Amino acid sequence: MRNKETLGKRLSLQEIKDTQLNILLEFEKICDKKGLTFYLCGGSLLGAVRHKGFIPWDDDIDICMTRPEYNRLCELARNDELDGPEWLKIVCYDNGTSRYPFIKVLDKRTVVYNDFFREEEYDNLWIDLLPVDGLPDDEDKVAELYRKVTTYRKYVQMKHIRPFEGKSLSKKLIKPFLFLFANIINTDRYNDKLITISTAFPYEKAKNVGIVTEGLYGVHEAIPREAYEKAIEVEFEGHTFKATSYWHEYLCNLFGDYMQLPPEDKRKTHDMKAYRLND
Asked: What is the 3-state secondary structure (H, E, C) of 36-77?
């Protein structure tokens, strides 16, 4: 991990967004060449629909891809067959290049310093690419699946926290114990469990699908597969990207009255500390 005192210029929120948009555009070129399709999802799809771009106080981009195409992309990255610019890198747990059970597309010319988590070889500005997996037909089983995923994800995160950093005194006091526990139980195996249960119901055979490994909205992530696969185009920062035709129902499930702006005290930003590396 680089010492933050040796980093280059700290980037403004707008510069962070410009960098992430550039990552997205370059990644789109790779997908077009390789015959892969991704959609805007989560807050990025909300931003496209409500703001025609980033949510003003947000500072990340989320996209998704079906598990079969996601696996193919991992293989292309593993075999160094992406044909992208030198500064762009794709990392994922599947290839042993990341602790995250999803893909991060990185700009290696930048670095991000996180006050609360220890990153390793992938502490660059990024966009997240989340796999869309099949879900069981039974709603109770879907709920149980997401409960397990949430638990496993927390175990994995505990291993990478900064043990003496926190926004409150209570978090600073408890984190060393969580960190010690996580390293004793070898949380890497929980990533394996997470991926195993996420892929237990093959995408191609499922009636409903959803983002599972990083499915922060639980059962609300579920989308009928046939509706999901019908694409529409949405505007995002002056460019056109694909999204699911089920976008309205999806955004209602995740955000309720999604066109209504949240109160100002609920407009959370990550206050990301990102830097452009010196040449």
From this structure: CCCEECHHHHHHHHHHCCCCCCCCCCEEEEEHHHHHHHHHHH
